[in-house]
Amino acid sequence: MERYRFSLGTWAPLLLLVLMLCSCRDRGELADEAAATHGVTDTEITLGSSLALTGHAGYLGTQNLSGAQAYIHQINSEGGVYGRNIRIVALDDAYDPPRCLVNTQKFIVDGNVFALFCYVGTPTTVKVLPLVDEARIPLLGVLTGANALRDPFNRYVVNIRASYYQETEAVVDHLINDLGIRDIAVFYQYDAYGFDGLVGTELALKRYGLEPVARGSYIRGTLDVEEGLARIRDSGAQAVVMVGTSGACARFIDLSVQDGFDPIFYNVSFVGAEDLAKRLGPECPARVVMSQVVPPPDHDGQVPEGEDLVEREYVRTLRRYCPGELPSFAGLEGYLNARILVEGLRRAGPDLTREKFIDAIESIQDYHLEFGATIRFGPGDHQGMDRVYFTLLNGERFMEFEDWAVLKR
Q1: Cβ distance 165 to 200 under 8 Å?
Q2: Are 328 and 269 in contact (CB under 8 A)?
Protein backbone atom coordinates (compact mmCIF):
# COMPACT_ATOMS: atom_id res chain seq x y z
CA MET A 1 0.00 0.00 0.00
CA GLU A 2 2.85 2.33 0.87
CA ARG A 3 4.55 1.44 -2.42
CA TYR A 4 1.36 2.37 -4.31
CA ARG A 5 1.11 5.72 -2.56
CA PHE A 6 4.80 6.40 -3.24
CA SER A 7 4.36 5.59 -6.92
CA LEU A 8 1.31 7.80 -7.27
CA GLY A 9 3.01 10.66 -5.47
CA THR A 10 6.02 10.29 -7.70
CA TRP A 11 4.07 10.25 -10.95
CA ALA A 12 1.35 12.74 -10.08
CA PRO A 13 3.40 15.87 -10.91
CA LEU A 14 4.47 14.31 -14.20
CA LEU A 15 0.89 13.40 -15.08
CA LEU A 16 -0.20 16.91 -14.24
CA LEU A 17 2.52 18.33 -16.48
CA VAL A 18 1.47 16.08 -19.36
CA LEU A 19 -2.15 17.15 -18.96
CA MET A 20 -1.14 20.79 -18.92
CA LEU A 21 0.96 20.38 -22.08
CA CYS A 22 -1.85 18.58 -23.85
CA SER A 23 -4.24 21.30 -22.78
CA CYS A 24 -1.84 23.98 -24.05
CA ARG A 25 -1.40 22.14 -27.34
CA ASP A 26 -5.13 21.85 -27.79
CA ARG A 27 -5.62 25.54 -27.04
CA GLY A 28 -2.83 26.38 -29.51
CA GLU A 29 -4.38 24.23 -32.19
CA LEU A 30 -7.76 25.79 -31.56
CA ALA A 31 -6.22 29.25 -31.73
CA ASP A 32 -4.46 28.38 -34.99
CA GLU A 33 -7.70 27.04 -36.41
CA ALA A 34 -9.59 30.15 -35.37
CA ALA A 35 -6.94 32.36 -36.96
CA ALA A 36 -6.97 30.24 -40.09
CA THR A 37 -10.67 30.85 -40.61
CA HIS A 38 -10.57 34.62 -40.19
CA GLY A 39 -12.36 36.23 -43.12
CA VAL A 40 -14.36 33.09 -43.92
CA THR A 41 -18.07 32.67 -43.32
CA ASP A 42 -20.62 30.27 -44.74
CA THR A 43 -21.34 32.75 -47.54
CA GLU A 44 -18.19 34.79 -48.07
CA ILE A 45 -14.39 34.79 -48.29
CA THR A 46 -12.84 38.21 -47.68
CA LEU A 47 -9.41 39.21 -48.99
CA GLY A 48 -7.35 42.29 -48.15
CA SER A 49 -5.51 44.22 -50.86
CA SER A 50 -3.16 47.14 -50.22
CA LEU A 51 -2.03 48.58 -53.52
CA ALA A 52 -1.40 51.80 -55.39
CA LEU A 53 -4.67 53.22 -56.66
CA THR A 54 -3.22 56.73 -56.89
CA GLY A 55 0.26 58.17 -57.29
CA HIS A 56 3.17 57.13 -59.50
CA ALA A 57 2.16 53.46 -59.62
CA GLY A 58 -1.57 54.11 -59.59
CA TYR A 59 -2.06 52.91 -63.15
CA LEU A 60 -0.56 49.51 -62.34
CA GLY A 61 -2.61 49.12 -59.18
CA THR A 62 -5.95 50.01 -60.74
CA GLN A 63 -5.34 47.77 -63.75
CA ASN A 64 -4.15 44.84 -61.67
CA LEU A 65 -7.16 45.10 -59.38
CA SER A 66 -9.67 45.43 -62.22
CA GLY A 67 -8.30 42.32 -63.93
CA ALA A 68 -8.63 40.32 -60.71
CA GLN A 69 -12.07 41.74 -59.95
CA ALA A 70 -13.35 40.80 -63.41
CA TYR A 71 -12.62 37.10 -62.86
CA ILE A 72 -13.89 37.17 -59.28
CA HIS A 73 -17.15 38.78 -60.43
CA GLN A 74 -17.52 35.93 -62.91
CA ILE A 75 -16.92 33.28 -60.23
CA ASN A 76 -19.38 34.96 -57.86
CA SER A 77 -22.03 35.08 -60.58
CA GLU A 78 -21.63 31.32 -60.93
CA GLY A 79 -22.23 30.71 -57.22
CA GLY A 80 -18.76 31.38 -55.80
CA VAL A 81 -16.51 28.66 -54.38
CA TYR A 82 -18.45 26.07 -52.33
CA GLY A 83 -21.27 28.59 -52.03
CA ARG A 84 -19.01 31.40 -50.81
CA ASN A 85 -18.64 34.64 -52.73
CA ILE A 86 -15.19 36.25 -52.84
CA ARG A 87 -14.88 39.86 -51.72
CA ILE A 88 -11.81 42.09 -51.99
CA VAL A 89 -11.34 44.95 -49.54
CA ALA A 90 -8.93 47.26 -51.39
CA LEU A 91 -7.08 50.08 -49.61
CA ASP A 92 -4.96 52.64 -51.44
CA ASP A 93 -1.35 52.91 -50.28
CA ALA A 94 -0.24 55.20 -53.15
CA TYR A 95 2.96 53.11 -53.50
CA ASP A 96 4.06 54.36 -50.07
CA PRO A 97 5.61 51.70 -47.77
CA PRO A 98 4.38 53.14 -44.43
CA ARG A 99 0.82 53.35 -45.75
CA CYS A 100 1.02 49.78 -47.00
CA LEU A 101 2.24 48.69 -43.57
CA VAL A 102 -0.66 50.45 -41.83
CA ASN A 103 -3.19 48.94 -44.25
CA THR A 104 -1.80 45.45 -43.71
CA GLN A 105 -1.78 45.84 -39.93
CA LYS A 106 -5.44 46.80 -40.15
CA PHE A 107 -6.25 43.70 -42.19
CA ILE A 108 -4.47 41.42 -39.73
CA VAL A 109 -5.41 43.05 -36.43
CA ASP A 110 -9.07 43.38 -37.33
CA GLY A 111 -9.01 39.72 -38.29
CA ASN A 112 -11.56 40.13 -41.04
CA VAL A 113 -9.54 38.87 -44.02
CA PHE A 114 -8.62 35.34 -44.96
CA ALA A 115 -5.61 36.25 -47.10
CA LEU A 116 -3.70 39.17 -48.62
CA PHE A 117 -4.09 39.48 -52.37
CA CYS A 118 -2.94 41.60 -55.33
CA TYR A 119 -0.33 43.77 -53.62
CA VAL A 120 1.65 46.07 -55.92
CA GLY A 121 5.30 47.04 -55.72
CA THR A 122 8.56 46.00 -54.11
CA PRO A 123 9.17 48.68 -51.42
CA THR A 124 5.59 48.37 -50.18
CA THR A 125 5.30 44.59 -50.13
CA VAL A 126 8.74 43.94 -48.67
CA LYS A 127 7.75 46.15 -45.75
CA VAL A 128 4.91 43.80 -44.73
CA LEU A 129 6.77 40.48 -44.95
CA PRO A 130 7.44 40.33 -41.18
CA LEU A 131 3.70 40.71 -40.58
CA VAL A 132 2.95 37.91 -43.03
CA ASP A 133 5.39 35.64 -41.20
CA GLU A 134 4.04 36.46 -37.75
CA ALA A 135 0.38 36.12 -38.70
CA ARG A 136 0.94 33.13 -40.99
CA ILE A 137 -1.45 34.71 -43.46
CA PRO A 138 -1.25 33.84 -47.18
CA LEU A 139 -0.02 36.61 -49.51
CA LEU A 140 -0.84 35.70 -53.10
CA GLY A 141 -0.36 37.49 -56.41
CA VAL A 142 2.06 40.38 -55.93
CA LEU A 143 2.87 42.68 -58.85
CA THR A 144 6.62 42.65 -58.31
CA GLY A 145 9.46 40.38 -59.31
CA ALA A 146 11.50 41.17 -56.20
CA ASN A 147 13.92 38.51 -55.09
CA ALA A 148 13.08 39.23 -51.43
CA LEU A 149 9.69 37.61 -51.96
CA ARG A 150 11.38 34.46 -53.28
CA ASP A 151 14.57 34.04 -51.30
CA PRO A 152 14.51 32.92 -48.58
CA PHE A 153 11.53 30.72 -49.29
CA ASN A 154 8.39 31.71 -47.40
CA ARG A 155 5.55 29.23 -47.10
CA TYR A 156 2.94 31.98 -46.96
CA VAL A 157 4.09 34.02 -49.99
CA VAL A 158 2.78 32.84 -53.37
CA ASN A 159 4.17 34.46 -56.52
CA ILE A 160 2.61 33.92 -59.93
CA ARG A 161 4.98 35.91 -62.17
CA ALA A 162 8.64 35.57 -63.15
CA SER A 163 11.24 37.51 -61.13
CA TYR A 164 13.20 40.65 -62.01
CA TYR A 165 16.35 38.54 -61.94
CA GLN A 166 14.85 36.40 -64.71
CA GLU A 167 13.76 39.45 -66.69
CA THR A 168 17.13 41.19 -66.52
CA GLU A 169 19.07 37.98 -67.18
CA ALA A 170 17.01 37.36 -70.31
CA VAL A 171 17.51 40.86 -71.73
CA VAL A 172 21.26 40.84 -71.03
CA ASP A 173 21.54 37.54 -72.90
CA HIS A 174 19.73 39.01 -75.92
CA LEU A 175 21.68 42.27 -75.91
CA ILE A 176 25.03 40.49 -75.80
CA ASN A 177 24.35 37.41 -77.91
CA ASP A 178 21.94 38.81 -80.52
CA LEU A 179 23.17 42.38 -80.84
CA GLY A 180 26.77 42.23 -79.64
CA ILE A 181 26.13 45.03 -77.13
CA ARG A 182 28.41 44.96 -74.11
CA ASP A 183 28.27 48.57 -72.90
CA ILE A 184 25.15 48.40 -70.74
CA ALA A 185 24.13 50.96 -68.11
CA VAL A 186 21.44 50.83 -65.42
CA PHE A 187 18.96 53.58 -64.53
CA TYR A 188 17.07 52.69 -61.37
CA GLN A 189 14.72 53.93 -58.69
CA TYR A 190 16.64 54.45 -55.47
CA ASP A 191 14.76 51.96 -53.29
CA ALA A 192 14.24 48.22 -52.86
CA TYR A 193 12.64 47.90 -56.32
CA GLY A 194 15.44 49.66 -58.12
CA PHE A 195 18.16 47.88 -56.14
CA ASP A 196 16.62 44.53 -57.07
CA GLY A 197 16.74 45.33 -60.78
CA LEU A 198 20.26 46.70 -60.44
CA VAL A 199 21.51 43.57 -58.68
CA GLY A 200 19.76 41.34 -61.22
CA THR A 201 21.48 43.18 -64.07
CA GLU A 202 24.85 43.06 -62.34
CA LEU A 203 24.54 39.32 -61.78
CA ALA A 204 23.58 38.76 -65.42
CA LEU A 205 26.52 40.85 -66.69
CA LYS A 206 28.92 39.10 -64.32
CA ARG A 207 28.28 35.85 -66.17
CA TYR A 208 29.96 37.50 -69.16
CA GLY A 209 32.77 39.06 -67.14
CA LEU A 210 31.12 42.49 -67.39
CA GLU A 211 29.59 45.12 -65.15
CA PRO A 212 27.43 48.18 -65.87
CA VAL A 213 29.36 50.94 -67.63
CA ALA A 214 27.37 53.44 -65.57
CA ARG A 215 24.71 53.58 -62.88
CA GLY A 216 22.22 56.41 -62.54
CA SER A 217 19.29 56.72 -60.13
CA TYR A 218 16.39 58.93 -59.07
CA ILE A 219 14.31 59.22 -55.90
CA ARG A 220 10.97 57.39 -55.82
CA GLY A 221 8.04 59.74 -56.34
CA THR A 222 10.06 62.33 -58.28
CA LEU A 223 10.98 62.98 -61.92
CA ASP A 224 14.50 64.15 -61.10
CA VAL A 225 16.31 62.07 -63.70
CA GLU A 226 18.80 64.64 -65.05
CA GLU A 227 21.78 63.68 -62.89
CA GLY A 228 21.37 59.98 -63.60
CA LEU A 229 20.91 60.65 -67.31
CA ALA A 230 24.10 62.76 -67.48
CA ARG A 231 26.14 60.01 -65.86
CA ILE A 232 24.79 57.34 -68.22
CA ARG A 233 24.98 59.49 -71.35
CA ASP A 234 28.63 60.35 -70.65
CA SER A 235 29.45 56.64 -70.36
CA GLY A 236 28.57 56.01 -74.01
CA ALA A 237 26.23 53.18 -73.07
CA GLN A 238 24.69 51.32 -76.02
CA ALA A 239 21.78 50.05 -73.94
CA VAL A 240 20.13 51.20 -70.71
CA VAL A 241 18.33 48.86 -68.34
CA MET A 242 15.56 50.93 -66.72
CA VAL A 243 14.06 49.96 -63.36
CA GLY A 244 11.59 52.67 -62.44
CA THR A 245 8.04 53.88 -62.86
CA SER A 246 6.52 55.10 -66.12
CA GLY A 247 6.77 58.84 -65.43
CA ALA A 248 10.47 58.84 -64.57
CA CYS A 249 11.38 56.41 -67.36
CA ALA A 250 9.41 58.40 -69.96
CA ARG A 251 11.15 61.62 -68.91
CA PHE A 252 14.55 59.90 -69.10
CA ILE A 253 13.80 58.71 -72.65
CA ASP A 254 12.37 62.07 -73.78
CA LEU A 255 15.40 63.98 -72.52
CA SER A 256 17.72 61.42 -74.15
CA VAL A 257 16.02 61.94 -77.51
CA GLN A 258 16.37 65.71 -77.12
CA ASP A 259 20.09 65.29 -76.37
CA GLY A 260 20.67 62.95 -79.32
CA PHE A 261 21.45 60.04 -76.99
CA ASP A 262 20.26 56.91 -78.82
CA PRO A 263 20.82 53.66 -76.92
CA ILE A 264 18.32 50.83 -76.67
CA PHE A 265 16.04 51.61 -73.73
CA TYR A 266 14.96 48.45 -71.95
CA ASN A 267 12.30 48.54 -69.21
CA VAL A 268 11.35 45.81 -66.74
CA SER A 269 7.69 44.80 -66.61
CA PHE A 270 6.74 46.94 -63.60
CA VAL A 271 7.20 50.14 -65.59
CA GLY A 272 3.77 49.62 -67.17
CA ALA A 273 3.54 49.24 -70.93
CA GLU A 274 0.36 51.13 -71.74
CA ASP A 275 1.14 54.06 -69.47
CA LEU A 276 4.72 54.37 -70.77
CA ALA A 277 3.53 54.24 -74.40
CA LYS A 278 0.98 56.96 -73.68
CA ARG A 279 3.57 59.20 -72.04
CA LEU A 280 6.08 58.77 -74.87
CA GLY A 281 3.52 59.33 -77.60
CA PRO A 282 3.08 57.60 -80.98
CA GLU A 283 5.89 59.57 -82.65
CA CYS A 284 8.63 58.54 -80.22
CA PRO A 285 11.72 57.70 -82.33
CA ALA A 286 13.56 55.83 -79.59
CA ARG A 287 14.05 52.05 -79.50
CA VAL A 288 12.08 51.12 -76.39
CA VAL A 289 11.89 47.50 -75.29
CA MET A 290 9.97 46.08 -72.34
CA SER A 291 9.91 42.60 -70.86
CA GLN A 292 6.58 41.14 -69.77
CA VAL A 293 5.59 38.26 -67.53
CA VAL A 294 2.32 37.61 -69.38
CA PRO A 295 1.69 37.62 -73.14
CA PRO A 296 0.30 40.76 -74.76
CA PRO A 297 -3.42 41.12 -74.04
CA ASP A 298 -5.78 41.41 -76.98
CA HIS A 299 -6.37 45.17 -76.97
CA ASP A 300 -9.04 45.09 -79.65
CA GLY A 301 -10.82 42.02 -78.39
CA GLN A 302 -10.33 40.44 -81.81
CA VAL A 303 -8.76 36.99 -81.77
CA PRO A 304 -9.13 34.56 -84.69
CA GLU A 305 -11.95 32.10 -84.22
CA GLY A 306 -10.82 28.78 -82.79
CA GLU A 307 -8.08 30.34 -80.66
CA ASP A 308 -9.55 30.19 -77.16
CA LEU A 309 -6.76 32.16 -75.53
CA VAL A 310 -6.56 33.35 -71.94
CA GLU A 311 -6.13 36.83 -73.40
CA ARG A 312 -9.45 36.48 -75.16
CA GLU A 313 -11.18 35.19 -72.02
CA TYR A 314 -9.67 38.06 -70.06
CA VAL A 315 -10.92 40.66 -72.55
CA ARG A 316 -14.39 39.13 -72.69
CA THR A 317 -14.64 38.91 -68.90
CA LEU A 318 -13.26 42.42 -68.41
CA ARG A 319 -15.74 43.84 -70.90
CA ARG A 320 -18.66 42.13 -69.18
CA TYR A 321 -17.89 42.81 -65.53
CA CYS A 322 -15.72 45.96 -65.71
CA PRO A 323 -17.14 47.89 -68.68
CA GLY A 324 -15.05 50.83 -69.75
CA GLU A 325 -11.77 49.27 -68.55
CA LEU A 326 -9.22 48.69 -71.31
CA PRO A 327 -7.16 45.48 -71.41
CA SER A 328 -3.57 45.77 -70.19
CA PHE A 329 -0.58 43.64 -69.23
CA ALA A 330 -1.09 44.49 -65.55
CA GLY A 331 -4.79 43.67 -65.87
CA LEU A 332 -4.09 40.28 -67.42
CA GLU A 333 -1.61 39.57 -64.62
CA GLY A 334 -4.31 40.38 -62.05
CA TYR A 335 -6.74 38.14 -63.92
CA LEU A 336 -4.28 35.23 -63.73
CA ASN A 337 -3.69 35.94 -60.04
CA ALA A 338 -7.43 35.54 -59.47
CA ARG A 339 -7.55 32.30 -61.46
CA ILE A 340 -4.85 30.76 -59.27
CA LEU A 341 -6.56 32.08 -56.15
CA VAL A 342 -9.83 30.40 -57.12
CA GLU A 343 -8.08 27.17 -58.12
CA GLY A 344 -6.42 27.06 -54.70
CA LEU A 345 -9.72 27.70 -52.91
CA ARG A 346 -11.40 24.91 -54.86
CA ARG A 347 -8.62 22.43 -54.12
CA ALA A 348 -8.62 23.37 -50.43
CA GLY A 349 -12.17 22.06 -50.10
CA PRO A 350 -15.25 23.39 -48.28
CA ASP A 351 -13.60 23.30 -44.82
CA LEU A 352 -11.31 26.19 -45.66
CA THR A 353 -8.28 27.12 -43.54
CA ARG A 354 -5.15 29.04 -44.39
CA GLU A 355 -2.95 25.98 -44.05
CA LYS A 356 -5.23 23.93 -46.31
CA PHE A 357 -5.14 26.75 -48.85
CA ILE A 358 -1.33 26.82 -48.96
CA ASP A 359 -1.26 23.01 -49.24
CA ALA A 360 -3.74 23.29 -52.11
CA ILE A 361 -1.60 25.87 -53.92
CA GLU A 362 1.41 23.57 -53.59
CA SER A 363 -0.61 20.79 -55.24
CA ILE A 364 -0.99 22.86 -58.44
CA GLN A 365 1.62 21.34 -60.72
CA ASP A 366 -0.15 21.04 -64.04
CA TYR A 367 -2.35 24.12 -64.48
CA HIS A 368 -2.19 24.67 -68.22
CA LEU A 369 -2.87 28.08 -69.70
CA GLU A 370 -4.21 28.38 -73.21
CA PHE A 371 -1.27 30.51 -74.42
CA GLY A 372 1.14 27.63 -73.91
CA ALA A 373 2.37 28.26 -70.37
CA THR A 374 1.92 25.92 -67.43
CA ILE A 375 1.71 27.10 -63.83
CA ARG A 376 3.48 24.85 -61.34
CA PHE A 377 4.03 25.09 -57.62
CA GLY A 378 5.42 22.73 -54.99
CA PRO A 379 6.34 22.52 -51.29
CA GLY A 380 9.58 24.41 -51.95
CA ASP A 381 8.51 26.36 -55.03
CA HIS A 382 6.00 29.20 -54.73
CA GLN A 383 6.59 30.86 -58.10
CA GLY A 384 4.12 29.61 -60.67
CA MET A 385 5.55 30.99 -63.93
CA ASP A 386 9.07 31.53 -65.25
CA ARG A 387 8.54 32.67 -68.83
CA VAL A 388 9.60 36.15 -69.96
CA TYR A 389 8.14 37.84 -73.07
CA PHE A 390 9.63 40.80 -74.93
CA THR A 391 7.74 43.67 -76.47
CA LEU A 392 8.80 46.65 -78.59
CA LEU A 393 7.19 50.08 -78.68
CA ASN A 394 5.46 50.42 -82.03
CA GLY A 395 3.42 53.59 -82.27
CA GLU A 396 0.85 53.61 -79.50
CA ARG A 397 1.45 50.15 -78.06
CA PHE A 398 4.05 47.57 -77.14
CA MET A 399 4.02 44.60 -79.52
CA GLU A 400 5.59 41.20 -78.89
CA PHE A 401 8.70 40.46 -80.99
CA GLU A 402 11.32 37.74 -81.28
CA ASP A 403 13.80 38.99 -83.92
CA TRP A 404 16.22 41.27 -82.07
CA ALA A 405 17.76 42.33 -85.38
CA VAL A 406 14.92 44.86 -85.74
CA LEU A 407 16.67 46.91 -83.06
CA LYS A 408 19.84 47.46 -85.09
CA ARG A 409 20.51 50.94 -86.47
Answers
A1: yes
A2: no
